[in-house]
Amino acid sequence: MREPISACIITYNEEYKIGRCLRSVTWCDEIVILDSFSTDRTFEICRRYTDRIRQNVWLGYVGQRNLARDMAQHPWILFLDADEEVSPALRDEILAEFERGTGDCVGYEFPRLVYYLGRWIRHGEWHPDIKLRLFRKTDGHSEGEEPHDRIAVRGPVKRLKNPIWHYTYDDIRDQLATLNRFSGITAQQRFVQRRPFHWLDLLLRPPFRFLRSYFLRGGILDGAHGFIIAVLSAYGAFVKYAKIWEIEHQRFAESRTAPNEPPDRPVQEGRSR
């Protein structure tokens, strides 16, 4: 008999996507949900698929995933985001692999195929976007800098060929909102880590991000979609470093202002009384 797998999913207000995600992992031996007190129908929808649900205050992507991992009862963990789906081909590939036996392998990685503005994206920065998401519980955990967590394992990893499907953004407005949120998290993280702002980052990284996405990684082959992705990737890089500058600028201004003393005001020339 194959080793059992626990699918672990973290959620918050995902009522329009979570059903598709959960249907794609009904073949797993357990579905574990860690919800951050959703205010929509997410919790209700999850209850239709599993009773292994817990609500917890948001600990960040790393903390939340590790808590979901600890909740799992089986030796293998499959991490999935609420806006992702295990493709039927990947499901069959995983099951075939486990029927043969995993041997000394402690993790499996596979590509992620993004659906964006009505089409699948097969070039540029977003493809093949290899992710390690299936791993032996005793040999892996989540780590990394917010908001970009990753799975670290101790031991051999095998790459499968079939993808997770990722329904990344509803539209450009949703994408811009995510870029704004993630850039703020990253900027704050860098400030806490005392990683200083450099003007060269702000000047050079955004155009390089566009060139890499659109030309070096072949985003041009995705037509208008590839161009929009490359431009917005460059914009995201610009906003991130601009926010790092903003935080340092604000802290510097605050350090020059004495406690309980308002900032200096320009002296207005004129006749005194």
Can you characterise this structure?
- With 273 residues, the protein is an alpha/beta fold.
- The protein folds into two domains: 5-167, Spore Coat Polysaccharide Biosynthesis Protein SpsA, Chain A; 172-255.
- Helix content is 40%, strand content 23%.
- It is built from seven helices and 13 strands.
- The strands form three sheets. The protein has a seven-stranded mixed β-sheet.
- A hairpin with a 2-residue loop joins strand 10 and strand 11 (148-153).
Mean pLDDT equals 93
- Give the spatial strand order of the biggest sheet: 3-2-1-4-9-6-12
Main beta-sheet annotation: 7 strands, mixed
At CATH's second level, what is the architecture of the largest domain? Alpha-Beta Complex
Number of strands: 13
Query: Which CATH top level class of the largest domain fits?
Result: Alpha Beta
Low-confidence stretches: 265-273
How many domains make up the 3D coordinates?
Answer: 2
Would you kindly provide a brief summary of this structure?
By secondary structure, the protein is an alpha/beta fold.
Topology (elements, then pairings):
Elements: E1 5-11, H1 18-23, E2 30-35, H2 42-47, E3 53-55, H3 60-71, E4 76-81, E5 84-86, H4 88-100, E6 107-110, E7 112-116, E8 119-121, E9 131-136, E10 140-145, E11 148-153, E12 157-159, E13 164-167, H5 172-192, H6 199-216, H7 223-255
Parallel strand pairs: 1-2, 1-4, 2-3, 6-12, 7-13
Antiparallel strand pairs: 4-9, 5-13, 6-9, 7-8, 10-11
Helix pairs in contact: 5-7, 6-7
